Amino acid sequence: MGSYVKLAKRAVETDMPVMVKKYAHQHNHVNAAYEYVLCVGDRVFIPCARERALHGVGGDLFILKTHVGYVYMRANGGLDAGFGPKSEKCCVLGPGLSFPFFMFPYTAFFTLYKGVEIGEGVVYWQPPKEALNKVKELVWEPSISRYGADEGIPELREALIQKLQKENKLVKSSVMVTAGANQAFVNLVLALCDTGDSVVMFAPYYFNAYMSFQMTGVTNILVGPGNPETLHPDADWLEKILSEAKPVPKVVTVVNPGNPSGTYIPDPLLKRISNLCREAGSWLIVDNTYEYFMYDGRKHSCIEGDHVVNIFSFSKAYGMMGWRVGYIAYPSGVEGFQNQLLKIQDNIPICASILSQHLALYSLEMGPEWVTEQVKDLVKNRDIILEALSPLGEGAVKGGEGAIYLWAKLPEQYVEDDKVVDWLATTHKVIVIPGSACGCPGHLRISFGGLTENDCRDAAEKLRRGLEDLLSNGIVQ
């Protein structure tokens, strides 16, 4: 009939971070998560805080008594939810609700707890106030509500070309504006890869990139190792794969600085990877989303070539996560590349939001100094979280060189990291990402970008207590 399971226990099957993230965004409760979901067969029903009847269902009625009330289930998969102890009021979920990450607004008869979120890759700041004020003046402009050029509004593209030349030293690149860096990556996979092609990633990898390959039919995903000490991609392994694999992998991709690793690929290593790709005839996609997030005196740099495509984003640097603006810097000299990208762009978003593109333009006018001023405050957050991870022992934590992530190794007996994530969330009210989502079971990804310093200290205290409890007593429900 149905059973309660902890949310994170279905992390491998349904991607727990996505479920928590989508709920938080939809209801504007970034620090809220549900301890329990109801599973009916293969379906997962996630509660929300509003009461709303969707539609009725027929079939035999079964009653499941719980410690918080009654749940009414029908034989055909429908669900009636009681509003509290012995309530006769109910609403109904129909039988067609089969996707585990959709948020269905019905009653909150499940256990609800407040937890702090240090898993999701976000920053705590808003876009520049000056840019937001300018955008407000554009809302009633008719052009804002119409389609724009597929590749982006001309004034933003021109500003981005100047930025690429000045800041990134990319002088032979053209620009396409996309609805965020994730959409940019999907565009590139569709443009460069055919079903059945092989591609290369390095563990720990960015899970959205992995899923982008999967959903576009690229199933031969070769996952290379990272250096155990630095987490840098293993170029020797790559050289062997590119020389021996048949057919040659179509794409090699890296994130620099890394998500989820938080490490920065040094220039000599990135150049070697690029040279190996060029010699083998493979494309290299470099995700530079965190280009401004560099610490301890490190400087970010890009690489250019007729086989190299760079991805950038406004989401983290300018606090524009919900505005969805990213861009592709692709080689101008490759014949036909632009046309292929335009075909894909016109069939997915047509164009990125016109209003969002104007906000991106106005934010860009603030200069990189505005971003670095925000980023410098994250050093305190990083150090606070590093201290909270100290119970794991010396050498257990990597990253923190760039981006907004730390990568922590759990004790050997906790290779099933989803159980640890579940336990930390339910027992200690702190939410992190399991390393198994990134191809490395037995690890945690922790983000230090989404909270102000005071909130970060609160999260760190919960995390520290949780890890100390884990090492002393194990997982005790």
UniProtKB/TrEMBL annotation:
Pfam family, one: Aminotran_1_2
Domain Aminotransferase class I/classII large: from-to ranges: 126-463
UniProt-listed GO biological process terms: amino acid metabolic process
InterPro entries linked to this entry: Aminotransferase_I/II_large, AspAT/PAT-like, NHTrfase_class1_PyrdxlP-BS, PyrdxlP-dep_Trfase, PyrdxlP-dep_Trfase_major
CDD domains: AAT_like
Gene Ontology molecular function: pyridoxal phosphate binding; transaminase activity
Cofactors demanded by this protein: pyridoxal 5'-phosphate
PROSITE patterns on file: AA_TRANSFER_CLASS_1
Keywords: Aminotransferase, Pyridoxal phosphate, Transferase
Family: Belongs to the class-I pyridoxal-phosphate-dependent aminotransferase family.
Protein name: Aminotransferase class I/classII large domain-containing protein
Organism of origin: Salix dunnii
